[in-house]
Write a structure and sequence with these properties.
Elements lengths: L4 H14 L4 E9 L2 E8 L2 E8 L6 E5 L12 H9 L4 E6 L7 E7 L2 E8 L6 E6 L2 E5 L36 H9 L8 H8 L5 H12 L11 H16 L6 E5 L2 E6 L9 E3 L3 H9 L9 H30 L2 H15 L10 E4 L8 E4 L6 H45 L3 H13 L7 H6 L8 E5 L2 E5 L3 H11 L5 E5 L7 E3 L8 H13 L9 E7 L3 E3 L8 E3 L3 E5 L13
Antiparallel strand pairs: 1-2, 2-3, 3-4, 5-6, 6-7, 7-8, 8-9, 10-11, 10-12, 13-14, 15-16, 16-18, 17-18, 17-19, 19-22, 20-21
Length: about 575
């Protein structure tokens, strides 16, 4: 789910009506990639959130005052305070069909622009003066993009414009027929085709149009009726061409699944909103600093503690059963004594009293009078064998429960480090999957619906991936990494999987130590003065069968002892 070109257009109209002419009274560092602006206009304070998060970028108004979520201001925040605080917002614009929004600000004799590019994986937030970049959240050097440098003191170069597509607001039936006739891939779905050939089309918009045309969002492109598709395009997109926005969000079972500026019919639970910002806020949740999440984390932490108690009790029971073999011995001895005394037993006898060892008290053995002595003995031997087999499985059960407890520790670390609603929601979903947390609508809604990505860092051309929770750890180790990449993890505690990509160059020890400090920082040992971090190759890291996401074993490790520190140690920062 992302902000598409039509949503940006609706935001432009909303901001032109609400914000233009207003004075920027405050600049807030909400998080590492997000800036908040307090804008006073028409005797009312408005709060605008601009996020260049690589996974969930967005720009929208929020209902409540934004709060600083970082201990130290970012360079971008400092520059914005210097150049735009006290300035007046004079215009908001969007390049046609682009997912780019520009805010023009008058500050004394200066004309400053804020450009937000809310595109997943390529998102950015830039401060521009006279066409020159003052700074940006994500700096892009020549090693990443030789054609579009995004660095201070360089001219701002917008993304290359889209070309060769059709205007979706006024296609003819003939154009639709030609578009469908050119499809040669029999497996290509119509929802995959439309974003490729129509300007401004997102996957969400494509699903809505295809659903209205065929009733099936998985319809193959070759099977779609051209006339029905043409009519659906007109019904959905024509109002957008007139800038007749109908904002809202789709909510089912307490989860906001999507937002849009047109009614969604292929998803149940459509709810109209007064503004598109309101719909976006419903999807992502309220934007505030980490200190505001403490209250929301309390029920999640309580569920984790309940899980620890539950698994701890189970482990104690299994360990007690492993040590207590008196019952099994009683079954075995009972069967042997029945065989030894079988010829002395009377028909209908219900009890046998006999000593197994001379120096021990006699055993009282219950007998079934309807069975022969041999059958009674066999019954005891069967019970003994079943108990013995069950006992043989206990060590594996103990290991499984120990992994469950370790996973609870990891989720506790995930929750502690969660810095936004989607990251809290990751923990909630993991607990719900194990039946440790009910599907409370209020709790689910706070998660929004976005999902956060692992942290991507670059330093001296090396790429580093950091998983900040168990789901991201799984992605970093088993999807992002190659077998020869270096893998780091704080020893003996829950925490981040960190990978240094091996691009064929020698990886210096100094870089390994710096990255180890980041691995220590994103672990439960982050407050320790000294942390041991294990370093190995990804090929030596293996998933633990039936364990939670990101739970692994590894071998052939070496260790480095470091002081925990954040990714700010790298001047070229996070990507």
């Amino acid at each position: 789910m992302y902000i598409d070109a039509f949503t940006v257009a609706a935001l432009v109209d909303e901001f032109m009506d609400t914000l233009v002419g207003g004075r920027i009274q405050d600049v807030i560092d909400v998080d590492a990639t997000g800036i908040g602006l307090e804008i006073y206009n028409n005797r009312e304070r408005h709060y605008l959130y601009l996020s260049a998060d690589r996974q969930t970028p967005r720009v929208h108004l929020v209902p409540d005052k934004l709060r600083r979520g970082l201990q130290r201001p970012t360079q971008m925040g400092l520059l914005m305070r210097r150049h735009i605080e006290g300035g007046r917002l004079v215009h908001v614009s969007q390049p046609k069909w682009e997912r780019i929004l520009q805010l023009d600000i008058e500050m004394g004799d200066e004309e400053i622009s804020i450009i937000i590019e809310p595109m997943p994986r390529r998102s950015n937030l830039l401060l521009i003066r006279d066409g020159i970049i003052l700074d940006c959240v994500h700096r892009v050097g020549p090693e990443e993009n030789r054609y579009r440098l995004l660095l201070p003191n360089h001219a701002y170069q917008p993304p290359p414009p889209l070309e060769g597509r059709l205007d979706p607001t006024q296609p003819t039936l003939e154009q639709v027929e030609i578009m469908l006739s050119k499809v040669t891939d029999e497996k290509l779905k119509a929802v995959q085709l439309l974003p490729r050939v129509l300007y401004g089309f997102s996957p969400l918009l494509a699903r809505e149009v295809v659903y209205r045309a065929s009733g099936d969002i998985n319809q193959r492109a070759q099977d779609v009726d051209p006339a029905a598709l043409h009519q659906a395009l007109h019904d959905v997109v024509a109002p957008l061409g007139r800038r007749d926005w109908q904002p809202g969000y789709a909510e089912a079972d307490g989860i906001v699944e999507a937002f849009s500026v047109y009614p969604l019919t292929y998803i149940k639970g459509w709810q109209p909103s007064d503004r598109i910002s309101d719909a976006i806020t419903m999807y992502y949740g309220i934007i505030e600093g980490p200190e505001a999440y403490a209250e929301a984390k309390k029920p999640v932490q309580a569920a984790i503690e309940e899980g620890k108690i539950r698994y701890g009790a189970k482990l104690e029971s299994l360990e007690r059963g492993l040590k207590d073999d008196a019952e099994r011995e009683h079954l075995q001895h009972s069967g042997e004594l029945i065989l030894a005394y079988q010829y002395g037993l009377e028909p209908g006898q219900t009890e046998l009293r006999a000593q197994y060892n001379v120096d021990e008290p006699e055993l009282v053995i219950k007998l079934d009078p309807d069975l022969t002595p041999l059958e009674n003995a066999q019954r005891y031997f069967d019970k003994y064998n079943r108990a013995k087999r069950a006992q043989q499985g206990v060590p594996q059960l103990i290991e499984d429960v120990q992994q469950d407890i370790a996973y609870m520790d990891q989720l506790e670390s995930d929750l502690e480090m969660a810095a936004n609603w989607p990251e809290i929601d990751d923990v909630i979903q993991a607990l719900q999957a194990r039946g440790l947390m009910g599907r409370d609508k209020k709790i689910q809604r706070m998660g929004g619906g976005g999902r956060t990505a692992p942290l991507r860092l670059t330093h001296d051309g090396y790429v580093i991936w950091v998983g900040r929770n168990s789901r991201q750890n799984e992605e970093v180790t088993f999807k992002k990494a190659n077998s020869q990449d270096l893998w780091l993890h704080a020893r003996g505690v829950a925490g981040a999987h960190v990978v240094i990509r091996d691009d064929g160059r020698h990886i210096p020890e100094s870089l390994i130590e710096q990255v180890a400090g980041i691995a220590a920082y994103y672990s439960k040992a982050k407050t320790e003065a000294s942390v041991i971090v294990d370093v190995t190759r990804v090929k030596y890291v293996k998933k633990i069968k039936n364990a939670g996401p990101g739970m692994v074993t590894y071998r052939n490790e070496q260790t480095v002892t470091v002081t925990p520190h954040s990714e700010e140690v790298f001047a070229d920062g996070a990507r």
